[in-house]
Each structure stands twice: as C-alpha cells, then as structure tokens.
Amino acid sequence: MTNSIFHKKKKRSTLPKIIFILIVGIIFFKIKVDKEVGKELDSFNNVKVYFNGFPTKSFGRNLSEDGYNIGMKFQCVEFIKRYYYEYYKHKMSDTYGNAKDFYDNKLKDGDMNLKRGLLQFSNPSFKKPSVGDIVIFKPYILNRYGHVAIISKVDESTIEIIQQNVWKKTRENLKLIHTNDLWYIESKRIMGRLSLSDIN
Question: 187 is in which domain, residue-wise?
Fold first, then answer.
C-alpha cells in the first residue's frame, strides 16, 4: 500500500519536470528556427529560395522598387512571382491571391489566364511541361491555401520542381507520364500549370 502511494507521488512529481523540459525545448527550437528565417537554401537561375521557418508565417510584403507586389516574404507565392519578375521580367495583372487562386477552373487546357498573363494548362495536358512552368497544387487538410512551385528540370519520365516554404525541402521529383497524347504529372494534388512558353 505504502509503495503504491510512493509511486503515485513520484509520477506526479516527474510530470511537471517533463512539461518544463518540453516547454524549454520548444522555446529553444523556435529561437533556432527564427534565427534561420530568411537564410538562402537554394537558387534557380540566380533567383534565391529562402527559409520561412513555419509554413504559416510571413514576414511582411515584398515590393519591387517600382511598387510591384511580389508577395508575402518567404511564402511559396512570393518565390514564383519573384522568379517570374527577376528572370522573365514578367508582371502579373492580378498581384494578389493564395497559391490555389493561380489556377482558374473555368479555363480550358491551353487558354490564356488573364489574371496572371500566362497560358494555363491542365493536368493532364496536350502540352508537355517545360522548365520555368509554375505548378499549382490543390489545398488539403493541413494547407488550405494550396502551393506553387517552378519546374526546374524535365525529361521524358520525370520533372523536378523547386519551391519555397516547404521547410527545407527545396527540390522534389515527380513522375511524368505520356499516354493517349496527353502529359500527366503524377500527383492527385496538382491542378495544373501556368506557362510563358508559347506567348509571343
């Protein structure tokens, strides 16, 4: 009887210690992460990918010298818009919106997306993906805003994407399938792509 009371007291006294250690650990982890925010992780055609810390965070709006809205710093949208602005000198007509808003469900495969000033291709599409295309991902339970990335490599069976605000995983390979004269990037989350490739 005495032993069981002793064990209960011992359990109760160790619980606050465990909670304290967890809280201290979380604080130190957050401090470490916050110090790394804005650190360069990768680059593509000299356009940098920065570390954002936690996916839901943002660090103010990034505006170009001429006032063009590039996006909320270190979010996925900010990277793709900055890439198009710096590398292609392309400004989007509609400078706002979450990642999911970049795809217009009313458009057909190959139509012009006027809000973005880019051609829109569905998944699958008659048009093979090209380096520089923007890939748009659907929202899901852990991310209601969707996601965007840039295609950095293409071969006959794979594409590589480069992305910002996915912790420190800047590159990812996705399977590319060509069947019935259509090109399909294997992912249930991909809505489609935006491209400059055929715009004169």
Answer: 37-195
Per residue in 119-135, pLDDT (tens digit) is: 999 999 999 999 999 99
pLDDT digits (tens, 9 = 90+) for 132-150: 999 999 998 888 999 999 9
In a domain, 148, yes or no: yes
Q: If pLDDT is split at 50, 70 and 90, which confidence band does 87 have? A: very high
- Asked if residue 12 is part of any domain, the answer here is no
User: Which residues are bridge partners to 69 per DSSP?
Assistant: 63
For residues 132 and 175, give the distance between their C-alpha atoms in angstroms, rounded to a whole number: 17
Residue 103, token pair as written in the block: 């795809």
CATH number of the CATH domain containing 154: 3.90.1720.10
DSSP string covering 55-73 = TT---SEEE-TT--EEEET
Helix, strand, coil percentages for the chain (3-state, nearest 5) = 25, 30, 40
Tell me how far CA of residue 154 lies from CA of 92, 121, 151, 159, 176, in angstroms. Answer: 25, 16, 7, 4, 9
Contact predicate 183/125, CB 8 Å: yes
Global confidence as pTM: 0.82
Give me the residues paired with residue 166 across strands.
168
Q: What type of residue sits at position 75?
A: Q
CA 146, 140, 138, 38 torsion-angle sign: positive
Whether the CB-CB separation of 132 and 188 falls below 8 Å is answered with no
